[in-house]
Amino acid sequence: MTAAKGTYQAAFEAYRAHAVNKLGLPAEQLGGFGPNESIAKLQRGRVGQVWAFEGRPKDAPTPELRGWATSDGVVVTLEQNLGLLFAEAGAWGGGVTPALTAQQLADSLTWAMGSGHTVFTLHPKVPAPELTLKDGAGTLSFHVDFQKPGQGRAPRNISRIEVALTKDQRATLTRTPIPAP
């Protein structure tokens, strides 16, 4: 179930329509990305044929909406079609070679959460991201720290992220706030 090979433009248009709908903005007020494939190939968060996008108001840094779209126009977010990202990442075989590591997958998902989110591994009691699969099903687990940009030493907001992976190549993300270690 890896992404179909279509065009970057189809991915761009699908994600742009998604961002317009989710942010409630007219298309001409949407900023954050442009229809330039050569630059998009370098975009952080891109996985194979699943292109990474960020939409936000043209004249403001927030709210931001990050996610992906396939080259055949399927929008992938933390809430929908996430299995496509994992399939393209090689979680079930196929996809990019070599397959993405647990750390790389965690970095991609954390990128989609927006500015101020980082994979949290700075404490000995917090394990590194871990991907476990057996017979096509399993989990990706890791921790995320969130601090609003510009807040310096504000208290940490730590969450445990669990992505359930199923044999039919679906992925469901859950986020559970936990006390800072």
**Shape field:** globular
Counted beta strands: 9
For the termini, the CA-CA separation is 39 Å
Would you list the SSEs in sequence order as H and E?
Answer: HEHEEEHHEEEEE
Task: Find the structural class using helix and strand composition.
Answer: alpha+beta
- Low-confidence region ranges: none
Helix content: 10-25%
User: What gyration radius follows from the Cα positions, in whole Å?
Assistant: 16 Å
Number of separate domains? 1
Integer average pLDDT: 89
Q: Figure out the total of helices.
A: 4
- Beta-strand content: 25-35%
Largest sheet, strands/sense/barrel: 5 strands, antiparallel
Topology of helices and strands:
Blueprint: H1 8-23, E1 30-31, H2 37-40, E2 50-57, E3 65-70, E4 75-76, H3 82-88, H4 102-113, E5 117-119, E6 130-134, E7 137-146, E8 157-165, E9 171-178
Antiparallel strand pairs: 1-2, 2-3, 3-4, 5-7, 6-7, 7-8, 8-9
